[in-house]
Amino acid sequence: MDIAKQYYIGIDGGGTKTRCVIGDTEGNIIGYKVSSSGNISAIPLTQLHDMLQSMIETVLAQAKIPLHDVHKVFICLAGADRLDEKNKIHQSFEGSTLFDKIMIQSDAHAALAAGTWGDSGTLLIAGTGSIVYGWNGGHNFRVGGWGYLLGDEGSGFHLGKLAVRSILQSHDAKLPMRLFQREILAHFQVQHPPDIISKIYSQKASVPMIASICSDVLLAFEQGDELASEMVHLTQQELIRLIRLAQPQMDMEKPLVLHGGLFSSGPFFESFCKHLKLQFPTLELLRPEVSGEVGAYILALHANQILMDEAMKENIKNTWGNVKEA
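User: That's the sequence. What structure does it adopt?
Assistant: Structure tokens below.
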């Protein structure tokens, strides 16, 4: 092994999982590790530090790489978009060999980089929550992302809440339940619509639970159900409204990356792009070809002025696929 070679680590941590990869300057990804939540708002700083330290040690051991050959560790975590949070995480490594190698950003920055290969652009996330995040060569901005009580318009939670509301409205109007509504009742393990209320309000995890049922709505939308189509259209209009709010800060000549569970549905993605293009006909729309941890690895390369050519992009995609499946 060439001990003079430089290696780069990318870490992407969300509310549920944290994922880590290590690769070299040619785009060869050679190690991969998955761990628990990386949201600094959800876990103590000491626990977060220990988890990150353990992941880094694991991928180094997998790749048989000494730490001194690692040039940069780019850590992208949920809740780390604020300067004081970045500083807290960084300071937790004070005294460690890692301290001078670490850069910290939000998980949205990693998701954007996964779509733009590290270049500037704008990200629209429609997962459990929703947010617009943009980066224009050093300046970043965000629109939305204010949580389920005050924001998350156009999110999976938003669509799931519309679906639950439709069940209660159908019950009030004495209308027969549609197939997707019956499937949602079964998901909550209830037969009568009013019983869904106690299920939801008694659950601490009601937000992800409500967001998870949007898959039933998306399937009904794909099958042409009119009510499901109406709810999907309302959800998409909220996402388009977020883009309109963000437009003054966006570079409209750069791509808009569409990321999150709703966009993993082909029919939802195609329908959304069609409606968005009516208002922004020249805006380039794309979905990431790699995942957030690979986006963080790409950011680590960019931090060392290593830019992406087509050969490196293909190498990253191929080696990432091999490592992930191993």
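Residues 226-246 form the longest helix (21 residues).
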